[in-house]
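Hi R.,

Here's the chain you asked about this morning:
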Amino acid sequence: MEQKNVRDMIRKNIKTKKYFSDRAMPYFFMSMAFISVIVTFGIIYTLIFDSVKFFSKIPIKEIFSTELNPLAQNPTFAFIPLITATLLVTLIAMLVAVPIGMAAAIHLSQFATERKRRILKPVLEVLAGIPTIVYGFFAYSFVTPLLAKLIPGLGAKNILSPGIVMGIMIIPMVASLAEDAMNAVPQLMKDGALGLGSTKLETTFKVIIPASMSGIIAAIVLALSRAIGETMIVTIASGSSKAFSLDITQSMQTMTAYIVEFTSGDAGSGTIGYYSLFAVGLILFLFTLIINLIAQHMVRKYREVY
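And the predicted structure, written out as tokens:
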């Protein structure tokens, strides 16, 4: 009887309270949540609205050609050289970041002692706090001369050097998120594998990594999106050559570097070159969107529920 009276008292107390904050704060939180949605739609609207002006004057077939010369008397706007350079530098970055980042994550989560983890993880994450423009100068003034001694014919501006440095930059992202995913695997599964006679290495590769695959995929995709959208490293170290090429030792221009070059004053407002910036931005946005949609599908496919 006493318990029932206490419950009734609590319900009555809740009903009688009419605090303004209790009524207003849910609406405030909802409005904050909608800000990101509104901003996203605003960005999409801007890209599509100005891209339509570009595509209304430039035929689609020209976009998929290989001759890009936006400042010529008769300008041509072929985005294949930009797309190729972006994909190449991203591929190089991921070939650097994924193996090293995964190895670091495995060591930190499965093999490192607590003392070593407290030292190594903050040092690793310092890389994420370095400004990208510093990475760009590092790629141009240190990595490129170093690679030139090993690779004859390497250009002063090339796509290989910024790709490697970009991979170094996103190592902490891969390592930190992958480690968190591995640490989320229940200890019972690890103990069970070890109890059945598996070595620590076998447990890592046959139990821990498969069980944390969704988190690892999310880490890789986040790093991939970061690499595709990187600007300052490629602007400084990859050059501005708009010629179509697959030679990673020579200068190329990525989509983000193209946008930076033209927003610095080369394209007057309202010109076809100006609207080409929004078309390139739209293609970059679609790339990232497609990658994230594929990643969400893979995360749902490989997600383990404990």
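The chain has a mean pLDDT of 84.

Let me know if you need anything else.
M.
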